[in-house]
Amino acid sequence: MLAGVYDAVAPCGHAGLIVRQPTASGPPTFQGTCLDSQSGATVVEQVNPVMPLMRGADSGISASLANDPSQQLTLHPLVLQGN
């Protein structure tokens, strides 16, 4: 299953991708964004995974920015630190 939260620090800022997959055999859905603060303003850009949606050998998902597909990035599963 691909479901989870993926993130990366990229030239566009902090990128995130949420992947939902109700069942292991069901098709995944996704939503992604990249946030950055420049000159006091927040810049938001859409992140789209490279299709077909799948994990690479490093468990990352390849993606690109919607407004500049030449900017490629790899988002990795978010690991939460315990208290």
Structure report:
With 83 residues, the protein is mainly beta. The protein has one domain (4-71). Helices cover 0% and strands 59% of the residues. The chain is built from no helices and 6 strands. The chain has strands at residues 4-10, 13-20, 29-38, 41-49, 61-65, 68-77. Strand 2 (13-20) and strand 3 form a beta hairpin. It is globular and about 45 Å long. The model has no long low-confidence stretch (mean pLDDT 91).
**Mean pLDDT figure:** 91
Number of domains: 1
Class computed from helices, strands and strand pairing: mainly beta
**Total strands:** 6
Rg calculated over all Cα atoms: 13 Å
Strand order of the largest sheet: 1-2-3-4-5-6
What would the principal axes of the Cα set say about the shape?
globular
Beginning-to-end CA distance, first to last residue:
27 Å
What is the percent of helical residues?
under 10%
Largest sheet: 6 strands, antiparallel, barrel
Element-by-element helix/strand order:
EEEEEE
How many DSSP helices?
0
Share of residues in strands: over 45%
Poorly predicted sequence stretches spanning 5 or more consecutive residues: none
